[in-house]
Amino acid sequence: MKPATKPSQRPPDARLLVVHPDGAIEHTARSRFAEYLTSGDLVVANDAATLPASLHGVHVPTGEIVEIRLAGRRSLAPDDVQEFVAVVFGPGDHRTLTEHRPLPPVLRAGDVLALGPLRATVLGTVGHPRLVTVRFAGSPDSIWAGIVAHGRPIQYAHLEEPLAMWDVWTSVASRPAAFEPPSASFLLDWKLLADLEARGIDFATLTHAAGISSTGDPELDARLPLDEPYSLSAPLVESIERAKKRGARIIALGTTVTRALEHAAADGILRAGDGLATQRLGADTLLRVVDGIVTGTHEPTDSHYDVLRAFVDTVTLERMSAALEQAGYRTHEFGDSVMIAQPPHQGVPTQRACGALGGACQGLGYDNSPVDHMWRTIANPNRPL
């Protein structure tokens, strides 16, 4: 595979590798994505707008140049912007490979970082000398203004030109929350959304603070993804409930959508509201909500690749990777895409459905209990148990 070097969200030659439920692999144009869906399916995208999360400045105690990349926060609340988790680099910019960037000076609690109009204090390291918690001085409005005025989109050396904000906002971008773009949604445009509607395919969004994809440090990269806040609306949960009842599939656009939905249903009930995704998805994950995923093409060493292990076995993934390599698919955020879809499963009940059952399914998932059988019978009477 080769990196995509131009920031084009929907290049006319974008490709889609489809892994069918029987393991068969098909190459097609990404513009044909809707043709691989069935009437009644529900496509869920991440509508987080991308922050200009790269901030250059000075480590005041030493006078050394640093770059911090915002990488985490506790919630999506607009006024919760004083404290962030951040990855710190020494001097340089995206033109240098991340793994070749100089180290920052030793960071200690109380150190001040001068970042353009912003001032941030290091509260401490988070298990690694380059991963810190910082607190910005000022009101939420002044912090937002400073990030917008001084920040740049996070980017990497495979991209030739500096990114503009419009390069990293998807067509459905809403509130600013993502630290890097939820790039699986780059395939969306109004033509595709109209096509989905014409085919009887539902569409909904959630908001998830998509995190950084690389730090340049193997030890830090092994900790990705970091904890990420998300928000699910009541209409989204109701749409999922309706799709499950009619035996349709939930197709996640991206690993962040998958992570948010599966975390929200981790205790056996899918609820609307805010949460903080702390889990890692992989081969041992029992998917409760999501039936299929559309994502970028990833190397087997990427954390995003591990998420795909929740959908298909290792042999199928190896075949998929070989097919991507042989066909010369493009990688990274502006690259080509992969779609993996399984037959629909009924998953977990929603909070509203549990209320209709008198709360009897509280804490239970897809576990063959009597209540679980009852739920699946209500959701899909024709599905054999």
Can you describe this structure?
- The protein is built from 10 helices and 19 strands.
- With 385 residues, it is of the alpha/beta class.
- It folds into 2 domains: 2-50 and 161-341, 3-Layer(aba) Sandwich (QueA-like); 54-150, Beta Barrel (Thrombin, subunit H), CATH 2.40.10.
- Strands 3-2-19-17-15-4-13-14-16 form a 9-stranded mixed beta sheet.
- Residues 356-385 have low confidence and may be disordered.
Key phrases:
single chain, 385 residues, alpha/beta, 2 domains, 10 helices, 25% strand, disordered C terminus
| Architecture (CATH level 2) name of the largest domain | 3-Layer(aba) Sandwich
Count of extended strands: 19
Share of residues in helices: 10-25%
Classify the secondary structure makeup into a structural class. alpha/beta
List the total number of helices: 10
The H/E string reads EEEEEEEEEEEHHEHEHEHEHEEHHEEHH
| Alpha carbon gap, first and last residue | 43 Å
The CATH class label of the largest domain is Alpha Beta
| Average pLDDT taken over every residue | 89
User: Poorly predicted ranges (pLDDT <50, ≥5 residues)?
Assistant: 356-385
Compute the gyration radius: what is it? 21 Å
Sheet bearing the most strands, described? Answer: 9 strands, mixed
CATH topology category name of the largest domain: QueA-like
> What's the arrangement of strands in the largest beta sheet?
3-2-19-17-15-4-13-14-16
Strand fraction band? 25-35%
The total tally of domains equals 2
CATH superfamily of the largest domain: QueA-like
The shape, in one word, is: globular
